[in-house]
């Protein structure tokens, strides 16, 4: 004779189903007394099942929360409608967490509400991700606007320089050449010619300067390390902040995008050093590790405190971070008030052997 296993009772079945749900779940009568609760719910209250069943939220939760739960239960019972809302309340270990809660009325065949069933899902991580996404979108929008302004300013500056510098100089050369036609005596001719030659040389220099401000030709011609060295030389000449530059003998052949991004990051770091740090020395260092390149800019200036670092909404640091991320890398800035600042970029690189002479033979 086979002894059949007795079928589970409907209560034990409900309990088993509820316990399978990782979210907090419960069943209440129409007066908000708990009839059935699952393990996740019990853990969240910090009480035993016996202390919960037969009691209402006012007797289980802190007063304010209890009142809130009772009020939402009443609304569900009264309107006979499902209610869904997000709320912040203490989680199992006491810290505040976000929950997505759904409360549904239980309606019998006569159409009367006999109780409510509820489920609460912990959405704290999702909320944090949503916030990060919102913030990073806002930052991107700001960065985009900033880049547009910078581009516009750059255009204005170039057009002004083309007009005021190159335009004026070329006009002066043209007028000078015209007047030469009328000069008869040799002495004035020779001296005018000499001054026109000087003007032409100065004009060529300005044109070079303008072009190298736009994109340092040295970056394409001689490679990143030579371009960084050149930038540091002119930085020291301009600011009187001394520099050290350390770089391996052979540095990798970076793609134009990578070398431009690294160049611009060091450029922005140096601008920050001269604008904000009151430093007397800056050290730029490039290291090649097995799988990555580490580039750092360290100053011995006044540094900044943690707060500026985390709350600054200026765009220089953000732009450097974005450039690093676009190279698949990481950006870090460490600083303490009075103890200098160090900017660090790590980008993945697996190019051992593809060397370029640090002195700059970029073939
Ligand atoms: N080397 C540094 N030493 C001291 N403070 C610094 C240094 N670099 C940055 N800071 C601080 O961090 C802030 C943010 O720098 P960030 O480059 O983002 O903005 P900014 O230079 O003020 O303006 P911009 O958006 O034009 O670059 C600066 O305003 C400054 O207070
Ligand atoms: Mg800046």
Structural summary, described in words:
It is a single chain. The chain is 53% helix and 22% strand. With 363 residues, it is an alpha+beta fold. The protein has three domains: 10-122, PAS domain (Beta-Lactamase, 2-Layer Sandwich); 125-214; 218-363, 2-Layer Sandwich (Heat Shock Protein 90). A five-stranded antiparallel beta sheet has the order 2-1-5-4-3, sandwiched between helices. It has a five-stranded mixed beta sheet with strand order 6-8-9-11-10, with helices on one face. A hairpin with a 5-residue loop joins β4 and β5. α6 runs antiparallel to α7 and α10 (256-277) runs antiparallel to α12 (315-326). Bound molecules: adenosine-5'-triphosphate and magnesium ion (MG). Adenosine-5'-triphosphate binds at residues 272-273, 275-277, 299, 301-304, 308, 312, 314-317, 341.
């Amino acid at each position: 004779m086979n002894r059949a296993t007795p079928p589970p009772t409907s209560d034990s079945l409900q309990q088993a189903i509820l316990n399978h749900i990782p979210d907090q779940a419960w069943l209440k009568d129409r007066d908000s007394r708990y009839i059935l609760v699952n393990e996740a719910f019990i853990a969240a209250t910090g009480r035993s099942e016996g202390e919960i069943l037969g009691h209402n939220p006012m007797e289980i939760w802190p007063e304010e929360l209890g009142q809130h739960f009772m009020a939402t239960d009443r609304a569900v019972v009264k309107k006979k409608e499902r209610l869904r809302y997000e709320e912040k309340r203490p989680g199992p270990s006491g810290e505040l967490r976000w929950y997505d809660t759904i409360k549904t009325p239980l309606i019998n065949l006569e159409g009367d509400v006999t109780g409510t069933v509820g489920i609460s899902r912990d959405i704290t991580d999702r909320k944090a991700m949503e916030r990060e996404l919102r913030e990073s979108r806002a930052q991107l929008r700001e960065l985009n606007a900033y880049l547009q302004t910078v581009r516009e300013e750059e255009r204005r500056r170039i057009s002004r320089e083309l007009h005021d510098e190159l335009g004026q100089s070329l006009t002066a050369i043209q007028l000078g050449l015209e007047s030469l036609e009328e000069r008869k005596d040799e002495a004035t001719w020779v001296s005018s010619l000499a001054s026109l030659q000087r003007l032409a040389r100065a004009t060529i220099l300005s044109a070079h300067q303008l072009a190298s401000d736009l994109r340092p030709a040295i970056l394409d011609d001689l490679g990143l390390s030579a371009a960084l060295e050149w930038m540091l030389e002119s930085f020291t000449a301009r600011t009187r902040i001394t520099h050290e530059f350390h770089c391996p003998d052979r540095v990798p052949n970076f793609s134009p995008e990578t070398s431009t991004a690294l160049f611009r990051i060091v450029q922005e770091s140096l601008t920050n050093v001269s604008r904000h740090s009151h430093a007397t020395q800056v050290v730029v260092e490039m290291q090649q590790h097995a799988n990555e390149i580490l580039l750092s800019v360290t100053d011995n200036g006044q540094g900044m405190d943690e707060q500026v670092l985390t709350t600054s909404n200026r765009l220089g640091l953000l732009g450097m971070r974005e450039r690093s991320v676009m190279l698949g890398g990481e950006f870090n800035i460490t600083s303490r008030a009075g103890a200098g600042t160090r900017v660090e970029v790590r980008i993945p690189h697996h190019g051992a052997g593809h060397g370029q002479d640090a002195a700059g033979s970029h073939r």
